[in-house]
Design a protein that fits this description.
Blueprint lengths: L4 E6 L3 H11 L4 E7 L3 H10 L4 E3 L2 H4 L7 E4 L6 H10 L3 E4 L7 H14 L3 E3 L7 H11 L6 E9 L18 H4 L3 H16 L5 E9 L6 H7 L6 E8 L4 E7 L10 E5 L3 E4 L4 E7 L2 E6 L2 H11 L9 H9 L8 H21 L3 E2 H5 L6
Parallel strand pairs: 1-2, 1-4, 2-3, 4-5, 5-6, 7-10
Antiparallel strand pairs: 7-11, 8-9, 8-15, 9-10, 11-12, 12-13, 13-14
Helix pairs in contact: 4-5, 5-12, 8-12
Length: about 375
């Protein structure tokens, strides 16, 4: 155990509950305060997680001098302002994905962290999963050789928030969520692939978005559903790498291929349920699997810092304590937003867009 990290939470909804559950298991963490616009929800979270202070206005919470960091768990459109306010109060900031509602506002968040000399961490949870850590080890060990193409794939058969029976209406309203499947689940896979590929810079982006699968008309009208259920894309990077993207909340398919990353010496396929490595040795094509459960247990028991990379919260606390350097999640999340915004702009125009247009503020909110 190191010095206890004192954390405040902004937002006490469903996502915040996951964060607080993680922190509650960490002896190095003290949850000092929680804030929510709904006073009753803040009070309920405070009671459940034994948090001594509850607020309805986060500006009042940020006046405290006993907070090391603040965890922001708000709807996407509110990320930038709250995070910048936290950083300007001289506290480290952890924000839920996606980084913001636009590339430019995400850029402002990174600038605020730099100006205030504070750390900014974005919740990109797939980076810490056993299959992702295994792929990273293979890449770092040279088992894939030169990387050249990636595919990010994800689908739900019928898993749209609210209209398919879970979550609130705000998840399918552009004014709050800023997008649909691409912002909700696609963000994880794009970010993971950027991390694994060494953060290549996008140059050209082509995309399309769809809302085609039938839904109950009354729930659609009631919810104000105005976001995509499927996003597709093709991205070119400055070093010759390319990436395909497919992510759906609802699509008439039983399954799709897992994500894949192709290298000159070998390739990997991976998802929460699939992990395999493919190569050619001695003129023989080989398809290999691995025991990720045994790997995870062994690495966590034999590598001193491995437990600092098993979840987004664990890594955040370790970085706050100075045990490990913070992964560049803020920059990865910003580059992910660049791709997402490029897909939306390409879908609107019906043509390829340049990453430089997004960087220059083509869709600033």
């Amino acid at each position: 155990m190191g010095k206890k990290v004192r954390i405040g939470i902004i937002g006490a909804g469903q996502i915040a509950g996951y964060h607080m559950e993680e922190y509650a298991q960490m002896p190095d963490v003290e949850l000092v305060a929680v804030c929510d616009q709904m006073a009753s929800r803040a009070a309920d979270a405070a009671a459940k997680y034994h948090i001594p202070n509850a607020y309805q206005d986060y500006a009042q919470m940020l006046e405290r001098d006993d907070l090391d960091a603040v965890d922001i768990c708000l709807h996407n459109a509110l990320h930038a302002k709250a995070t910048i306010d936290v950083l300007n109060s001289k506290k480290h900031a952890y924000c839920e994905k996606p980084i913001a509602d636009s590339y430019q506002n995400g850029r402002d968040m990174l600038d605020a962290a730099q100006v205030n000399g504070r750390m900014l961490h974005i919740q990109l949870g797939h980076i810490y999963r056993p299959y992702a850590r295994a792929v990273k080890r293979l890449i770092d060990g040279g088992a894939l050789g030169e990387l050249y193409h990636a595919r990010t794939m994800g689908m739900r058969r019928r898993g749209r928030p609210y209209v398919d029976g879970y979550g609130s209406m705000m998840f399918v309203q552009k004014q709050h969520a800023c997008g649909g499947a691409l912002m909700d689940v696609g963000v994880y896979k794009i970010a993971l692939m950027l991390y694994l590929m060494g953060q290549p810079k996008p140059t050209r982006i082509t995309g399309a978005t769809y809302q085609k699968t039938g839904m109950d008309p009354a729930r659609k009208l009631q919810s104000g559903y105005d976001v995509e259920e499927l996003a597709t894309g093709f991205i070119r990077f400055e070093n010759g790498l390319t990436m395909e993207l497919f992510d759906a909340w609802a699509v008439h398919l039983d399954q799709i291929d897992p994500c894949s990353l192709l290298g000159a010496a070998g390739s990997v396929k991976f998802s929460p349920d699939v992990f395999s490595y493919h190569t050619t040795l001695c003129d023989l094509e080989l398809d290999c699997t691995g025991d990720l459960i045994a790997m995870d247990t062994r690495w966590r028991n034999t590598i001193d810092t491995e437990n600092d990379y098993i979840s987004s919260q664990a890594h955040w606390v370790a970085a706050l304590q100075g045990r490990v350097p913070l992964l560049p999640t803020a920059q990865i999340a910003l580059d992910t937003m660049l791709i997402q915004e490029g897909i939306y702009l390409s879908a609107e125009r019906g043509q390829e867009v340049l990453a430089d247009e997004i960087i220059a503020g083509a869709r600033r909110k």
